[in-house]
Amino acid sequence: MAPRVMDDHCLPIAVTMGDPAGISGEISLKSWIATRQSTRQPFFLIDDPIRLETLARNLSLDLPIEIITAPSQAHEVFSNSLPVLVESLSEEVVPGKPSATVSTTVIRSIDRALELVLSGDASAMVTNPIHKSTLYDAGFAYPGHTEYLAAKSKSEFDPVMMLVSPSIRVVPATIHLSLKDAIEALSIKGLMQCAMTTAIALQKDFGINQPRIAVAGLNPHAGEDGHLGREEIEIISPTIHQLKKDGLNIEGPYPSDSLFHEAARRRYDVVICMYHDQALIPSKTLDFDSGVNVTLGLPIVRTSPDHGTAFDIAGTGKADPGSLIAAITVAGQMAFTRQNTPSDNH
Questions:
Q1: Same CATH fold assignment for domains 1-156+301-346 and 167-286
Q2: CA 317/CA 314 separation, integer angstroms
Q3: Better pLDDT: 125 or 176
């Protein structure tokens, strides 16, 4: 589907701080430089302007930073300077060396972005990468952004992760579990909810009226009629059968080793995979620098770059902003489509 064209009335996108010891500051600065003259939907950072100015100077990045007090001001300044809503750090952060003492500031940046989207002052939020173990040390009680935002936004549905890139969309039905635990977690109820949430999101957020959903098998050769595993027979196929009765355009289970080549990808809009790496390996192989992590099932639009904090290159100037730029672009397109898709189409 071709990207929707934004108009001058689109609300700006809130971009969070992420872990300040990682590459989030660098890719945010570079994203503004790359898009300031071409985008019609500006973004603003919720970050510490002093640390951003220091980082820009250290990386020899020539850009002005302008402090704003409201998201609406982003439209006025974006083409000439990077708009920043102030969230001050309590101490100076050394690139590559995460510190739990700034975790409250990192979380507050996320909270403020969420509040601004929920209040209608921003159209979407894009979350820069966080370092989960640092947040855990500071008492953060959630596995990650996704679960935290679902709880804070009082989402009616369990969130679903989708990886979006120019070549493919994939959804892992189970996420951060060991392979053994992921297999044990598969259920008809869980797969049905995952598929329904995915189908609704493709309609209201991506403008695909009749999404085509392919489902990957768990076992080699999709179980080979039960000879290589029975999950396809006992869980996956019954789920697909029921969802077809409910009106979804869904097919499978397909052997995953033949599901991701170019000709196969033309037959579907998304693949639902059974476990984390089954989804992320093809996504990152096809589009490593432009993949976007999208959270489906939330009352807001939230995207994120499909990479981590990259402490090993933080502060070196080597970070590629491609995934953050893609995350901002996808967030804007989703917000526009959601706003302009009648709810009775879902």
A1: yes
A2: 7
A3: 125
Assess whether the previous peptide bond of 95 is cis (omega < 30° from 0).
no
- How is domain 167-286 classified at the CATH fold level? Isopropylmalate Dehydrogenase (3.40.718)
The CATH class, in words, for 1-156+301-346 is: alpha beta
What is the pLDDT of the chain when averaged over all its residues? 92
Whole-model pTM: value is: 0.91
Q: What is the pLDDT of residues 152-190, one digit of tens each?
A: 998 888 899 999 999 999 999 998 889 999 999 999 999
Q: Which of 76, 72, 22, 11 is nearest to 47 (CA)?
A: 22
Domain ranges of the chain: 1-156+301-346, 167-286
- The total of other beta-carbon atoms located within 10 Å of residue 230's CB is 13
Q: Tell me, what's the pLDDT at 22?
A: 96
pLDDT 10s digits, 1-57: 333 434 445 899 999 999 999 999 999 999 999 999 887 789 999 999 999 999 999
* Predicted local confidence at residue 145, as pLDDT: 85
114/108 Cα distance (integer angstroms) = 10
